[in-house]
Design brief:
Structural class: alpha/beta
Number of helices: 11
Strand content: 15-25%
Number of strands: 24
Largest sheet: 7 strands, parallel
Strand order of the largest sheet: 8-9-7-10-11-12-13
Distance between the termini: 22 Å
Helix content: 10-25%
Shape: globular
Length: 619
């Protein structure tokens, strides 16, 4: 049995020294004239061919000289005979730094050709993406590297124009969250989810079922109709053919009114649905993140009304979506308090393999979007002028918002960002409770032409802007749909892992969410499928009295054969923080010398590709 110990002083106060013992059985594991004619023919042919090749090469050189490329970057391929030292020396000769396949900088000290996480390209460990100082520049770096005997080639990092630009007329001028040119937003070019590049890889699939748990959907909308889900096991005959307790639920369900017509009453759900999956490249309106999908409307009330929806309808909606085969649920709403009933439904959804994507919520729990703006006050956050508060919303680590803050692995919690990669002023945040950011838009109460800039479907056939974390969550939902369409064998935990590990790092999000980053669809679709360890089970905790303090023994079952170790998490306030890590094959952990109180834990197995789902919590 593996064993680990951590000694603490006082009540939740960590001691300076850590005593750690890892062991397992005392050892560490794991053919005349004709001929002349032929000669002349081939000679002429050869001359002609060489001339053609020379022209072609000249054209290629000219094209390369004028083609756009990323300044101060080089792609360099080393020979397979090059050693690690040869490679590092060559990169150092141009003062270069490495960029890995997640567009993150890797120090030369940490780099290894054998480490997938540090590779620039997962398909070739000898091809490197190198950034050089502007004082060196791309051209000089290429000259230097080309002279190195260990280099196979060095070239510019050419800019490729995406081909998958949809014909939808509002895409380029209005949908900056998908493709921000700067001109279409008034913000910063490139601050988007790189949707066109992702669409070159995948645009969706009709086999992907996504439930929109909201105010319903205007399912006859011309930009949504082709992507609406239909129940394959129900017939309009007054009988519950599929035995799910809902009669004639052919196009979804209205949980609020208990009937089979999930028509939208407020356009909120329709706006959300359009962001996720409005038909793409159909020459009308907008493009959804996922051009092709099956959108299941599950109506849980009229979002925005004082008594427009209830936890009970939410539970019914979650269960309906799970039972009818939705693999992904979008929840662009928050509860006023923690509901154990909703938590239970979400646990059933996790057991059923459903990924639940939730809005982190808006300042003061208001719905911030153009059709239902809150009053133009400062929301307690101070007014920065022009009606825009200077601070963002609530820290949900301290003031939890549900369902985003439920402690369940199948939930992805999403905050809102604007066209400059700032966290939106109204958006809630939380280092431990919120996972990532996504475009949510602006909302300026002093200028009613700027009450939202995330354009989507509205009403029976309209379009319009909105803003809020309600708009941010469906961007993530759409990318989850693209991943499932691209790789149908992914489970919910792999999809979540890919989305979170492929974010684009954003300075303004450091300390605001777990990943410190914003959604990037292209990064997600090019991220390798992670091989993750199996989750440990049977976690138990036993307390032993020790001279006025307590020693706590944790034990669990190791179900994985590929973990690097285990992470121990401790509940601090309303959130769980990583407390310690232990080695592979460990199944026991001691926490020593702690004060009286309630101590709550869970454990995860981990490796470079990611962590396992967690154990059940124990106290």
């Amino acid at each position: 049995m593996g064993l680990a110990r951590l000694s603490l002083w006082g009540n939740q106060g960590f001691c300076p020294g850590i005593r750690m013992l890892l062991q397992k059985g005392g050892y560490f594991e794991k053919t005349s004239h004709c001929f002349l004619a032929l000669v002349v023919f081939f000679a002429v042919g050869f001359i002609s061919f060489s001339h053609s090749a020379a022209i072609q090469e000249t054209k290629s050189i000219a094209t390369a000289a004028t083609a756009p490329y990323v300044a101060d970057e080089v792609l360099v391929k080393f020979k397979t005979s090059a050693s690690d030292i040869d490679i590092i020396s060559a990169i150092q000769s141009v003062d270069g730094t490495l960029i890995n396949h997640l567009n993150k900088t890797v120090s030369l000290a940490d780099w290894s050709t054998k480490t997938l996480a540090n590779q620039s390209f997962v398909g070739d460990p000898y091809l490197f993406h190198v950034k050089v100082p502007s004082s060196t520049g791309t051209e000089n770096a290429i000259k230097t590297l080309t002279l190195n005997p260990n280099v196979e080639f060095a070239e510019k990092n050419y800019i490729i124009k995406p081909s998958a630009i949809p014909s939808d007329p509002w895409f380029l001028p209005r949908q900056w969250g998908l493709n921000n040119t700067g001109e279409n937003s008034g913000g910063t070019a490139g601050v988007d989810i790189d949707a066109p590049a992702a669409w070159d890889i995948c645009t969706g699939s009709s086999s992907v079922v996504i439930a929109i748990l909201d105010s319903g959907i205007f399912y006859n909308h011309p930009d949504l109709q082709a992507n609406m889900w239909a129940n394959p096991n129900e017939v309009l005959d007054g009988i519950d053919n599929d035995g799910n307790g809902k009669i004639d639920d052919i196009y979804g369900w209205d949980c609020a009114n208990g009937d089979n017509d999930p028509m939208d009453d407020s356009s909120h759900g329709t706006h959300v649905a359009g962001i996720v999956g409005a038909s793409g490249n159909n020459a009308i309106g907008i493009a959804g993140v996922c051009w092709t999908a099956k959108l299941m409307p599950v109506k849980i009330g009229i979002l925005g009304d004082e008594y427009g929806t209830t936890a009970a309808w939410a539970v019914d909606g979650i269960d309906y979506a799970r039972i009818k085969g939705a693999r992904i649920i979008n929840a662009s709403w928050t509860l006023p308090a923690m509901s154990v009933s909703v938590l239970g439904a979400l646990k059933r959804a996790q057991t059923g393999g459903v990924l639940f994507i939730a809005a982190a919520g808006n300042w003061d729990n208001e719905i911030v979007w153009s059709l239902n703006p809150p009053p133009p006050d400062d929301g307690g956050g101070g007014d920065g002028g022009g009606g825009i508060p200077t601070s963002c919303g609530n820290n949900v680590d301290q003031e939890p918002q549900y369902p985003a803050c439920y402690d369940l692995d199948n939930i992805i919690s999403v905050l809102a960002t604007d066209y400059n990669d700032n966290i939106a002023w109204y958006s809630n945040y939380g280092l431990y409770s919120v996972d990532l950011g996504a475009p949510g838009g602006i909302c300026d109460y002093s200028d009613y032409t700027r009450l939202g800039d995330i354009y989507s479907t509205l009403g029976e056939d309209g379009y319009g802007p909105g803003a809020g974390t309600s708009m941010a969550a469906p961007f993530v939902t759409g990318v989850a749909g693209l991943l499932l369409a691209q790789r149908s064998n992914l489970d919910w935990w792999q999809i979540k892992t890919i989305i979170l590990k492929s974010v684009e790092s954003v300075g303004y999000l450091v300390g605001r969410c777990r990943t410190h980053g914003r959604l990037n669809a292209y990064n997600a679709l090019t991220y390798p499928t992670p091989i993750l360890p199996a989750a440990p089970t049977n976690l138990s905790a036993t307390a032993y009295s020790n001279d006025g303090f307590w020693d706590i023994k944790l034990t669990w079952r190791d179900n994985s054969n590929n973990e690097s170790g285990f992470k121990i998490y401790l509940k601090v306030g309303d959130v769980f923080e990583e407390m310690d890590t232990v080695g592979a094959n460990t199944t026991t952990y001691w926490l020593e010398d702690v004060g009286s109180g309630v101590w709550t834990f869970y454990v995860r197995a981990y490796r470079a590709e990611g962590e396992s789902p967690k154990t059940e919590n124990v106290s």
